[in-house]
Design a protein that fits this description.
The chain is built from nine helices and eight strands. The protein is an alpha/beta fold. It has one domain: 3-Layer(aba) Sandwich (Rossmann fold), CATH 3.40.50.300. Strand 3 and strand 4 form a beta hairpin.
Length: 228
């Protein structure tokens, strides 16, 4: 059977990243955090003083940037030219720049090519916002995750505090709502549930519950495909 791709799309704070990573770890598969790739581009633009409105320079950064991923002691790390930027890409300053940069058509085209290349010829759980609709429309299993915005805000607050990043839950909630609205209405690759995706509402689920659910769905899909 050809390489097996699972796509997990959904809203910010719904548990996509943690669930995708832990599910991939349990199965021994590769975890592709596409949101981190856009954040890496945003970070480099921030460092170089490049504004999202300067499409040509942002596109240049997207083409040249060398992004890689490493698992160290069960922790997922994001690297730019071998520099660990896992914490820095989560700062509010980077977060503010992500959506407008991700809305640049050419940037998305460049990163989609990188994402497809990474996932080529290996079992992969790919997490983002347009995985099932644009990047891997032929994925064998598509999942769309969502949760109540107050639950998502609390999760994001705890995540930032754990990384030592100052945070206020009211501001986080406002930012999530703005991000949801922006991402779902943008012209290029909007956030939406693929027609053949399974909806997973994680409002009342623990991470362990989510991982168990995802792994079970993967195993069921694998069996179904093997029996065809």
């Amino acid at each position: 059977m050809e390489r097996f791709i699972v796509t997990i799309d959904g809203t910010s704070g719904s548990g996509k990243s943690t669930t995708a990573k832990k599910s991939a770890d349990r199965l021994g598969w590769f975890y592709l955090n596409t949101g981190a790739m856009y954040r890496a581009v945003a970070l480099m633009c921030l460092r170089k003083g490049i504004l999202p409105e300067d499409h040509q320079m942002v596109e240049k950064i997207a083409r040249k940037i060398n992004i890689s991923f490493q698992n160290v002691k069960d922790t997922h790390h994001v690297l730019i030219d071998n520099e660990d930027v896992s914490v820095e890409i989560k700062t509010p300053e980077v977060t503010k720049m992500v959506s407008p940069i991700a809305n640049i058509k050419e940037v998305r085209k460049i990163l989609v090519e990188k994402q497809r290349k990474i996932a080529n010829n290996q079992e992969c759980i790919c997490e983002g916002r347009d995985m099932g609709t644009v990047v891997f429309p032929d994925a064998q299993l598509k999942i769309f995750m969502d949760a109540d915005v107050d639950v998502r805000s609390e999760r994001r607050y705890k995540e930032l505090k754990a990384f030592g990043i100052p945070a206020e839950i009211d501001k986080i909630r406002d930012a999530l709502l703005k991000r949801d609205a922006y991402d779902s209405t943008r012209k290029n690759s909007p956030l939406k549930k693929a027609k053949d995706a399974i909806l997973l509402n994680t409002t009342n689920m623990s991470i362990e519950d989510e991982v168990n659910w995802v792994v079970k769905k993967i195993q069921e899909t694998l069996v179904s495909l093997q029996n065809k």
